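Design job #97: recover the sequence.
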């Protein structure tokens, strides 16, 4: 799975847990760079990479992309 930007590592960790596959690679910085994608929890906590000046994406955008990726993984496996 590839994403355009810098995703907080918890996104990839959760995706791997949910995908139930033997191997899953997550790559950031694909097809351009759209700043940071903090988790919802990190956005609530604030701090480096989670404030709106360096993470202009809507809160929850990273989770939405991980959900779409999960659906694609299940589709490729014939589960959806």
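Job complete. Output follows.
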């Amino acid at each position: 799975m590839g994403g355009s930007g810098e995703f907080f590592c918890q996104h990839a960790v959760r995706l791997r847990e949910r995908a139930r596959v033997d191997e899953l690679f997550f790559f950031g910085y694909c097809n351009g760079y759209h700043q940071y994608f903090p988790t919802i929890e990190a956005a609530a906590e604030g701090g480096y990479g989670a404030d709106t000046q360096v993470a202009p994406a809507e809160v929850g955008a990273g989770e939405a992309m991980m959900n779409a990726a999960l659906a694609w993984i299940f589709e490729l496996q014939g589960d959806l």
